[in-house]
Each structure stands twice: as structure tokens, then as C-alpha cells.
Amino acid sequence: MRIDSTRSTSGAKSARKSSATGDGASFRASLQQADETTRTAPPMASAQVGSVAALMALQGVEDPLEKRRRAERRGRQLLDGLDRLKMDVLEGRDPTSALLKLKTALESVRDDTGDSQLDSLLDQIELRAEVELAKRFRK
Q: Helices 64-90 & 96-107, crossing angle to 10 degrees?
């Protein structure tokens, strides 16, 4: 198919401008009003960085109750290990497994709870576990 000529655009009519009282004016006014209400303040980078830094600092702060729970959990693990050791000895089983678990629990890091009575109690439990380990491994 061959195209010999194309349409001319010279015959097109120019677009008619709307009057200030027509629909175009009210549309333009509503656009300007919407543009004014949706403008926002420029972002404040320093405030955002400050809030992120504050959030990071809060994540680093440790709850005193959580320290106490961890210390109590550690004390229970040591007491359970001592009970397993006692049962193994009473029943004539090899206590090596219980001793190794007790040693591992004893070597775990202990946090200061801030509660002197709890810390004293944990000291006594740890001392008893250390004595049992010393008795069994001195051979």
C-alpha cells in the first residue's frame, strides 16, 4: 500500500480559551487550592536522625527486670544440674554428662542484678556447683 499524500494540519482550528467565568476557571481554582493544601514542609533530616539515634539508644538500654529473669533462669539451671548430678550418683549412673552440663552452666556469663539478696543466693548456688565439680574432677 502506497501513501501519496498526508493530511495537512494547517486546517486545524486553534484551541478555544475558556472564559474566566466558565468551568475551566473553577477547575483551575480548585487545582490551585488543592496544591496549596498538599504542600508540605521540607524534610527535617536532623530531627529524623535524632529520632533514629534515640531509638537505637533505647534498644541498647536493658530492662532491670530482664536482668533479674536471666539471673533467676541461670540459678534454676544450676540447681537442676546439681539435682541431675545427685540423681546420677544415687542411682549409680555415670555422672559425666551431668557434670559437663553443670560446668557449661557455671561458665556462662552472669550479670549483676542489682538485688543483693538474689546475688548472694546465686553466689551460694555457684559455690556449691564449683565444689561438686572440684570433687569429681580432682581424681
A: 160
pTM: 0.53
Quick: pLDDT tens for 90-114.
999 999 889 999 999 888 888 888 8
For CA atoms 50, 55, 57, 58, give the dihedral sign: positive
Residue boundaries of the structural domains of the chain: 64-137
**Alpha-carbon distance 94 to 84, whole Å?**
11
CB atoms within 10 A of CB 139: 4
Three-state SS sequence of 42-91: CCCHHHHHHHHHHHHHHHHCCCHHHHHHHHHHHHHHHHHHHHHHHHHHHC
Cell of 114: 542489682
